[in-house]
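Protocol step 4 of 6: record predicted structures for both targets in the notebook before any analysis. Target 1:
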Amino acid sequence: MDWWQAFILGIVEGVTEYLPVSSTGHLILTQHALNIPPSEAANAYAICIQAGAILAVLGVYWKHVMEIVAGWLGKVGIWKGDEEGFRLGVCIIAAFIPAAVLGLLFDDKIEEKLFNLTTIVIAWFVGGVAILATVYYRRRRKDVQGAGKSLAQLTWKLAVIIGFIQCIAMCPGTSRSLVTIVGGVLVGLSLSAAVEFSFLLGVLTLCAATVYKAKDAGPLMVAEYGWGPMLVGSFAAWISAVIAVKWMVSYLQKHSMAVFGYYRIALAIIVGGAMFMGFR
């Protein structure tokens, strides 16, 4: 893998990781366009450069992160406690557990059977329809921007529901951000709170996925690509994810998620049509 390919993949990862459009789907499509053959090393690379996107959210939401850390340190008497931060940390862990358990059980099968463009195109289309249905649902309820529970009102039981919904994103092309944001809205969070929780949950989920994949396929990835592409890709992912996260938070303060639904459906039609016409 050349450095410029790594840079492009890093930008794609950073831009799409937290937008509800599926970073995995875009990375597989980009690898295909760049003539990077499918392999265990390529799949591992697509996951490991998430490290840059993780750093981006840690930087953008550092206040929430520090509140969580202070809350847990307070429970063991090391720091002045932050009860709200502790509760948010509990909710993040509760939402993470379902995906952690099911991921360990089915990761190999999912990678073997579902990491292909056909699955991704179908997931893009279905996810786009789901976004538009959620927007319609909120409009029918006459939800105003900001209506719903805040993060402080989220309970661990509701977080577990979001966690099980997050498991749907194990299918490539679905988008972890999409299902957790929609899950948050469905359990009563405001759209802004659902987005924040999705981003914070993503830090733990992506960290676990990155460490797990690096442990299993990291040596193979380094042997095939070297450390250079990993560092270039992670740096590009960090910069582009910071921009994407800030843009999305600002955009959703005034608009619905409909644009992402239309984008997913259009992309599914274009890529699916190209595949049907024989472009590979």
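Target 2:
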Amino acid sequence: MKEVIKLENVWKIYKEGEEGEVIALHGIDIDIKNGDFVAIMGPSGSGKSTAMNMIGSLDVPTKGDVYLGKHNISHLNESDLAIVRGKK
């Protein structure tokens, strides 16, 4: 089956204050193929919304790669992400 969404070693680290940081995603890997049914589950604060923001082209990872189809969207700027959201 054809890969639709793939996250490889994705990290998202948010800065908190001057020296602090919050690790929202810690090296996650997801491989979703055409026809797959997927549920993202976990307790509050486990990174579900952050992962969905990566998949939905609303945010980019601190580290790692996010693919939509064959296109790596991990390093796109805001306007390029908006184009991806409009087309995909």
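Step 5 preliminary note on target 2. The mean pLDDT is 92. The CA atoms of residues 5 and 68 lie 5 Å apart.
Proceed to step 6 after PI sign-off.
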